[in-house]
Amino acid sequence: MTNSPGVDRPDLSTLFAATADGIDVPTTATFAVLNPATEHVVGYAPSVTPDQLDGVFAAAERACQPWQSDEGARRQALHAAADAIDAATDELSGLLTAEQGKPLAEARSEFTRAAVWLRYFADLQLGHEDVPHLDGRAAVQRRPLGVVAAITPWNVPLVLAVWKIAPALRAGNTMVLKPSPFTPLTTLAVGHLLRRVLPAGVLNIIAGPDPLGAALVAHPTPRKVSFTGSTATGIKVAQAAAAGLKRVTLELGGNDPAIIFDDVDVTAIAETLFWNAFTNNGQICRAVKRVYAHESIHAELVEALATIAASTKVGDGSDPAVRLGPLNNPAQRDRVAELVRDALDHGATVAAGGRQPARPGYFYEPTILDNVTDGVRVVDEEQFGPVLPVVAFRDTADVIRSANRGPYGLTASVWSNDLDRARAVADQLDAGQVSLNVHGGGVVPHLPFGGHKLSGIGVENGPWGLDAYCDLRVITSAGR
Ligand code: NAD
């Protein structure tokens, strides 16, 4: 990231310290975080260096034993954390919009959802089974792993951090968490606020440009790495974690298909489908990334999506009228532009958008592409941006094959008024979550979320996500 001449910095600088052991980590360097809507500096994040990790992990390790020993205190602390995050919504949601780009209403919703997740895990029971064994019973217990490392991406920084913090802490682990260098400020600020409600060393939040992430994974202390980000980086994390036999949870990329059958009411579904693809500019792991529309309704659907795209207000997310902000960073914007160029070179046509507006910031018009097929990069790859290819299909078996093509298997959806048909197709889709007549309908605290194939290993959320932060311990007694 580079400095730029303009500066629009909220007066939150004291909240931007890295936190370990409940106090500021002294750092000698900072790095600038830019507002993607203006390219101005939002703030400067403290740059923790890999050689400081011993001290940070030591703090997390010291906090483990007392934190594990009092389940009631953990539940209370997670409720207090939820209250603190709720209370910080007005103060900090503008910061999230400034560093990430999303409209203010969506930034506020991240705070709300973060609090919901914390409360859900505060109240969730740790599993405990008493199973028949010989002529007596054996106890199967969940035990915390110890210190966990967590690494998050830039698209939904606060919610994705809390997806890790809430279950890990509930189970009795302590954590060292590193946000993306593109969006570290809100996470650091929340970490600072949570010092008031969490014992020292339980949650340590550090920022820094890479290779800090790799150093976190390689450090000998953490027993697990929970990572959300791209598949390419996830593979590196898995390789590095294997050297220390660390557990991993990997939430990675996706290329999520929506299959639209001929019996839908196009006018009725277009708006929902559009926002399932374009919310946060498509920078959501479970966003619709490719639409397969039956040939009999394909043209009508393209037109309906294009009309919505053309009428959607794009701009600085701090303007309440704006529905789509900029992309988060120039590399992501350039990737979207390149995929659109490549599609046009391969015969695609633009039904809406297709241009990078001439203005500061990393903007790209919401774009609907027609006349695209499997085999074109924008259909085959994860675009993670505001461009949606709409592919025509005729045959159900063919479209199922198309949906299952490629290395990913995160989410998918099937849209039809015939629910029996929709369920039968859903049964044949290789994805961690398949929704009917909506996309991503099950991203809630109580349902497991995770990908098949190269979309990840393991799941987050629900009791399954809590189990991922535990080892099992079996207690038996002699002869029974
Ligand atoms: P990224 O992989 O570039 O970076 C993610 C994080 O990893 C950042 O914090 C980064 O600093 C860190 N990192 C970089 N190199 C590392 C290394 N060698 N070892 C450890 N950490 C390292 O991903 P991104 O561009 O920030 O996020 C976009 C990607 O995230 C997309 O592919 C998207 O699909 C995926 N994502 C997946 C989910 C999900 O739940 N499956 C959710 C959100 C985003």
Low-confidence stretches: 1-10
Mean pLDDT: 96
Helix content: 25-40%
Global shape? globular
Computed over alpha carbons, the radius of gyration is 23 Å
The end-to-end span amounts to: 63 Å
Name every ligand kind in the structure: nicotinamide-adenine-dinucleotide
- What composes the largest sheet? 7 strands, mixed
Question: In which order are the strands of the major sheet placed?
Answer: 14-15-16-13-12-18-19
Strand content bin: 15-25%
Please name the defining characteristics of this protein.
480 residues, seven-stranded mixed sheet, six-stranded mixed sheet, 15 helices, 38% helix, disordered N terminus, binds nicotinamide-adenine-dinucleotide
Offer a quick outline of the entry:
By secondary structure, the protein is an alpha/beta fold.
How does this structure look, described?
With 480 residues, this protein is α/β, with parallel strands linked by helices. 38% of the residues lie in helices and 21% in strands. It is built from 15 helices and 22 strands. The strands form six sheets. The protein has a seven-stranded mixed beta sheet with strand order 14-15-16-13-12-18-19, with helices on both faces. The chain has a six-stranded mixed beta sheet with strand order 9-8-7-10-11-21, with helices on both faces. Helix 4 (104-123) packs parallel to helix 5. Residues 1-10 have low confidence and may be disordered. It binds nicotinamide-adenine-dinucleotide (NAD). The site of nicotinamide-adenine-dinucleotide has 29 residues, from helix 7 and helix 8.
